[in-house]
Amino acid sequence: MAFTVMSFTVNGIHRKGIHMTTILITGASSGIGARTAAKLAAGGATVFGAARTTSAIASIDGVTPVPLDLTDEGSIRNAVATITRAVDEIDVLINCAGYGEFGTVEETSLADARRHLEVNVLGAVGLIQAVLPGMRTAGHGRIVNVSSLAGEFAAPLGGWYHASKFALEAVSDSLRGEVAQFGIDVTVVQPSYVATDWHDDAMERLESSSSHGPYASMATAMSKYFANPALTKQFSSPDAVATLIAKAALTPRPRTRYRIGPGSNIAVALATLLPDRAFDALTRKQFGYA
Question: Which of 72, 94, 107, 155 is packed most tightly, with the most Cβ within 10 A?
Fold first, then answer.
């Protein structure tokens, strides 16, 4: 079977003669997750889209909605069980759900931080744990973790979001070495800025946590930075990111990481090569901090 997904075509991945066509993707109710689910379904894959609210998923042609609360272990188990009752196995898991908990480390409540890590990290790991036995039995599988450029370096006011993506990167690297022996691939997609409402939601959280205390000037500067229309020139389109995620899911020999966004490779290089305090100064200048 061949999949045609927008601008590229790849053969259905298979190990031991079994085509990998059944895909579970989280965060499929909106944004990048919804676009990716639609592309994969249009290309011929059997796609299950998971989210807490599934009404929007039901409107995506070829995508079967699955209720999922990533903070609830029972919901994770039920979602996987629902799918495996309908099909023999889940061939590809795409962990795309997540949000940005922005605010200072001091002022973000531990309850908010804990929920953030539950969704962005532990929920994704819970799904990984739930699908791996079937993948091991089948002798093939693919796990795609949608991380972020924020998993490569950290900046002020996004500590918890960076922490979640650093953790997802580390889990992915460890997991890759553990499951390769079973014919299972693990790959990470690292978008930079993307033209969705993600930034609006993140700035609302920043406003709520840190706009009235001792860090108010920093919060104001970051909000102003993301409100600048000129910044949109640096945004990747949701379709471009979705196409890359689909490629990571379906290409026969995936890279360990796929990065997308203008200047993303340069940003990672600067974070790696510059002394920490020099990179701190560069970040302050970028966001307009005093």
Answer: 94
Catalytic hit among 99, 161, 193, 215 = 161
List the alpha helices (DSSP H) in 87-151. Answer: 110-117, 123-138
Q: How far apart are the first and last CA of the chain?
A: 57
Q: Which of 66, 74, 117, 126 is nearest to 95 (CA)?
A: 126
- Whether pTM > 0.85 for this model: the answer is yes
User: Domain segments of the chain: what residues?
Assistant: 2-287
**Beta strands per DSSP E along the chain:** 2-5, 8-11, 14-15, 18-19, 22-26, 46-51, 63-67, 92-95, 141-146, 184-191, 257-260
Q: Closest by alpha carbon to 147, among 171, 130, 180?
A: 171
CATH number of 2-287: 3.40.50.720
Q: How far is CA 136 from each of CA 15, 40, 132, 156, rounded to the nearest angstrom?
A: 12, 23, 6, 41
The yes-or-no answer on residue 161 being catalytic is yes
Task: Tokens for 130, please give them.
Answer: 């739930």
